[in-house]
Structures are given as C-alpha cells and as structure tokens.
Specification:
The structure holds two protein chains of two kinds. By secondary structure, chain A is mainly α. Chain A has eleven helices and no strands. In chain A, α7 packs antiparallel against α10. In chain B, the strands form three sheets. Chain B has a six-stranded mixed sheet with strand order 6-7-8-3-9-10, with helices on both faces. Chain B has a four-stranded antiparallel sheet with strand order 2-1-4-5. A four-stranded antiparallel sheet of chain B has the order 12-13-11-14. Classes of the chains: A mainly alpha, B alpha/beta.
C-alpha cells in the first residue's frame, strides 16, 4: 500500500511542469557554481602544489558542490513538499485516501517515499556532476560517498519537515513558506549560541552536515538526522489522526 | 464459502459533538444486502457527518458501526475494504487520467494486482466511461466527473456503497442516468444515498430515514413515507367557478381555500375522498372542470409535519 501511494505521488511530481522547472533551475545554479569552482581550482593549482597538505580535487570541488547543494535544496524542497498534503485537503481528495483501507502511517510514509524518489533524482544529478571530475582527475570516492549519505539524509529531513507543515494547512503557500522559515531557522541555529557547549549547536542541521561534508561519518550525526525524520513523520501521522478525532 | 451476512451495515447510537455543538445525536440504522436506503434531510441536518462516521472519516463521540459484522473502529482496514464512499465533492485527482485514477482506487482498496485491469474495465462499462479511459479527469464535464466518483466507490465491488448527494449539480438527463445506475447497484450491493430531493428517494430507494437537527425523525419504507406525505388536499381548477359555499357543502370536504378566481384547495377527511363526487357535480352543474388532482405535500411540508410532531411529542413528554 505504501508503494502504491508513493508511486502515485512520484508520478504526479514527475508529471507536473512546476517540479521540472524547479529541477531545471536548481541544476542550472549548481552547474554554474560547479564550473566556477573548477575554474578557480585550475587557476590556483600551481600555488596549491607548493603546500604540503593542500586540498585535493574531491575536497576542493566535490565537497564544495555537495555543501552548495545542501543549501540550494533547502530553498527548493519546500516547493515540492508544500502541496503534498495541503492540496489533498484543498481538493478534498484526502477523503479518498482515508476512506480506503490504508492507515495514516501508510499514507504519510507513502507520501514521504514518493517525494524522496523525486529528490533522489536531484541528488543523482548532483552526484553525476561530481563524478564528471573523473574526466580529468582521480577522485576520493569515500569522501563522495560520505557526502552522498549526508545529502540524502538532509533531503529526508527537509522532506519530513515540509510534509508535516503541509499537513497543518490547506494553503500550499503557507506550508511552503513555513517550511522554508523553519528549515532556515534550524540551519543557522548554531549562530545564536554564544557558548560552544550550547544544546542549540547540537540541534543545528548545518553542524551535523559539516562532519559528513568533510568525510567524517559520525553515528551521532546519522542518528540526529534519522531522529529528525522520524519525529516529523510521527507528528504528521498524529496530526492526520487528530483530524479524524476532532473533525 | 459461507453465505454473505444478510445485514451489511449496522450503526448503533452514533453521536458526534463538535465542541459544545451536537451535530448528530443517537442515530441508528441497519441495512440489508441489496437494499437502497435513502438518507433525507434539510441542509445541516447532519447527513454528511453521519456518512463520514459510517465510512471512518470521522470518529464518533459515541456509538458503533459494523460492516458485515466487522467493527469499523476496531478493525478499520478490513471494514473499510468493504465500503465504497463518494463524498459530497468527488475526491478526484484532476491531473490523473480516468484509467490511472481508477487503477489507483482499485489498488488502494486491495484489489489483487492481477485483476485490477479487469475490475477497471468492468466498472468503466457500468458507469458509461468506456471511451474516457485516457482523458484527464480535470478535462471531463461535471457529469462525467460524478460518474468517475461513483466508479471509484464501486471498483472494488464493496458490500456497502455510500453516496453523498450523488446527483447534485447535474442536468436532468444525467440525473436520470445516475439514478438508473444507483438502482442497478442496489441489486447486489447495499446502498446508502443521501439527498434532499424527495422524488429522488421515491424513485430509487426501498427505505427512507429522515434526519432533522442531528436526529432521526422518521425511518421506514417508501410506502410509509408516501402515507406521511399525503396531505389530504385536492387541487381543483374550474373554468366556471361556483360560490365557495357550494364546494364546502360536498360530502367529505372539511375546508376550502380559494387560491385564485378559478383555483381552489379542497381539504378533506383522510378516509373520505370526495374527488368522485366533485367530478360528478362539476359535470352536472357545468363548472367547467379543468383540473382535479391530489396535492402533493412538498418536502418542506413533510419536514414540517415530522419535526412539529417531534416537537409536540417533546413538549407532551415534558408536561407529563
């Protein structure tokens, strides 16, 4: 059942022009950033060679690409998540799903996985861009894999939060702006902490991504991301159940 | 396989509060296989709320719903698999084609993968959608969208079909077709149909329940409703009208209202219909008889009758 809902969701994303437009713009921005970075690297190459422990191609370009992608996805994901539930409410199609013999959990997980299937395409294209560096250099594949894991988990967090906010309202725009605001807030949460031991730092998304971005896979970070995803999915399920009880 | 249970839908003591407001109070109903139940009531009577509770879209404050003996609240999945529901606004994904949408509906209602195609073809034939398979739902006319809505409710061959105002906003031809379809559905499924159009109930339903202010005020066969409806009034139009006293003098007539120069409303005693005598007199005295027909009470009248009866009963109870 989850996959029936997920494939419907993915199909309607793949079938909607707005998703493709956002995807194209995303790709354009990232490609431009990527090429600029390649140019910079080529120019600086001779000087870098003088240093003993200079960053390699993967670190200078690959990791940079993934961290830019993390920021750009933060801006773009709310466009994909905002309509997931809000539109179902608005068009009164939520009844269709609730009347069917499927649980709220299946509905929410289906929606989440359907969106992830689309976001994985975005991530796949970014990965392809990074791997294109193979044409002129040898790459640190492990660093790329760590980044890939990080970006996927990050996209999961964006999607889960956006999905939850989309459950709260029938106005897609409201859900989108809410998700963007919440994500930005969480992204820069560590800036508000003056004390280096502050729990705000542990809650900031960026801090957790930085480790993976540098190639360090820490179970604490991975757990943080997974907990983040599960928390918001559970909140979304509770919210939908609450609808049935409160009316 | 054992014989399917005779009672497909049983609701007992359903109540629903929204905050301090009680939308539905103590509604019970029972539906046998092959029966079409008309659910009647003015706007805001609680019909839609009741239907949402019957389909598991809204949790009742009190009471229980059983579908083929399966409790909807305890085992929502197996119970919901036996229900097909068309809400007031058909829940259509406008960007899907009819085929895709019906396939999705079938899959979600646990139709086995191998027979989904067959089920979709069959339901399209029944609902007259055979040529529409590849069209986008958003591009269909209102009538066809309504048919797609009905199709998604019956694609999994449910025991109980619940339709919330299925003919609202359709043109007369479409209404007739949809009614035909509902009557056909009544053959093998049990159907609950909500409406506020009385003739609709008379033409398709076996049994009627009337709601008013969240309560059941009438439940019985269509025949019983007809008796309730009979207002014991004749509409009489005469080309050459006599003095009103002459009409009052006829045996069985209790009162006469003059609507216009030629039109009268003749009230009569329930067991003593004076139509025959009126016709004879009209001919023999040359009144120029144009029309003589029993007046049908409008739905409004029936409601007034039923709800006033209710109110009177209540005051009587209180006084006692």
């Amino acid at each position: 059942m989850i996959f029936t809902i997920a494939s419907k969701e993915a199909k309607s994303l793949y079938g909607s022009p707005s998703a493709w437009i956002v995807l194209a713009i995303l790709q354009l921005i990232l490609a431009r950033m990527f090429l600029l970075r390649v140019d910079d690297f080529l120019r600086a190459q001779s000087q870098l060679a003088l240093y003993a422990n200079a960053p390699g191609v993967t670190e200078a370009i690959g990791a940079y690409l993934f961290s830019s992608a993390a920021t750009v996805l933060l801006m773009a994901t709310p466009f994909f998540t905002m309509r997931l539930m809000a539109d179902e409410r608005r068009n009164q199609t939520l009844t269709f799903l609730i009347s069917a013999p499927v649980s709220m959990t299946e509905i929410v997980l289906g929606k989440f996985l359907g969106l992830m299937a689309f976001l994985l395409l975005v991530i796949g294209l970014i990965l392809a861009m990074a791997l294109s560096l193979y044409a002129g250099a040898s790459l640190d594949l492990n660093l790329i894999l760590a980044n890939l894991l990080g970006l996927t988990l990050l996209a999961g967090c964006y999607a889960a939060l956006g999905l939850f906010l989309s459950c709260l309202t029938q106005h897609a725009i409201l859900a989108g702006i809410g998700a963007l605001g919440a994500l930005l807030g969480l992204w820069i949460l560590h800036l508000t902490a003056s004390d280096p031991d502050s729990p705000l730092i542990a809650l900031s998304i960026l801090k957790h991504f930085e480790n993976l971005n540098a190639g360090l896979i820490d179970t604490f970070d991975v757990t943080y991301f997974l907990l983040f995803i599960v928390t918001f999915l559970v909140l979304a399920i509770r919210r939908l159940d609450g609808d049935r009880l409160r009316g | 396989m054992s014989a399917p249970p005779a009672i497909t839908l049983a609701a007992r003591g359903l109540s629903r509060n929204f905050g301090p407001r009680t939308a539905v109070q103590d509604v019970s109903l029972e539906l046998k296989r092959g029966e079409v139940l008309g659910f009647l009531g003015p706007n805001g009577a609680g019909k839609t709320t009741t239907m949402q509770m019957l389909t598991g879209n809204l949790a009742p404050t009190r009471g229980s719903v059983c579908v083929c003996g399966i409790d909807l609240l305890d085992e929502p999945r197996s119970a919901k698999a036996r229900i097909g529901y068309l809400p007031e606004t058909p829940p259509l994904y406008r960007d899907l084609s009819v085929d895709d949408y019906l396939r999705l509906a079938a899959r979600l209602h646990r139709v086995a993968k191998g027979v989904v195609g067959e089920a979709v073809e069959q339901v399209k034939r029944r609902c007259g959608l055979s040529d529409m398979g590849r069209r986008l739902i958003g591009a269909l006319s209102r009538g066809f969208q309504q048919r797609v809505g009905i199709a998604q409710a019956i694609v999994h061959n449910p025991d109980v079909v619940i339709l919330d105002e299925p003919t609202v906003g359709l043109d007369p031809i479409q209404i007739r077709e949809i009614r035909g379809l509902i009557r056909e559905l009544g053959g093998e499924h049990s159907v609950v149909l909500s409406t506020h159009i009385l003739p609709e109930v008379e033409s398709v339903c076996d049994r009627v329940q009337i709601m008013h202010q969240g309560r059941m005020v009438f439940g019985g066969s269509v025949e019983a409703l007809r008796n309730e409806r009979r207002a014991h009034i004749l509409v009489l139009i005469l080309g050459n009208a006599p003095a009103i006293e002459e009409l009052r003098a006829v045996d069985g007539v209790t009162a006469v209202e003059q609507v216009s120069a030629n039109e009268f409303r003749v009230h009569h005693a329930p067991q003593n219909d004076p139509s025959g005598r009126l016709a004879q007199l009209a001919v023999s005295r040359g009144w120029g008889l144009t029309q003589l027909a029993p007046a049908h009470a409008s739905l409004e009248d029936v409601f007034l009758q039923l709800t006033q009866k209710e109110n009177n009963a209540e005051t009587a109870n209180r006084e006692r």
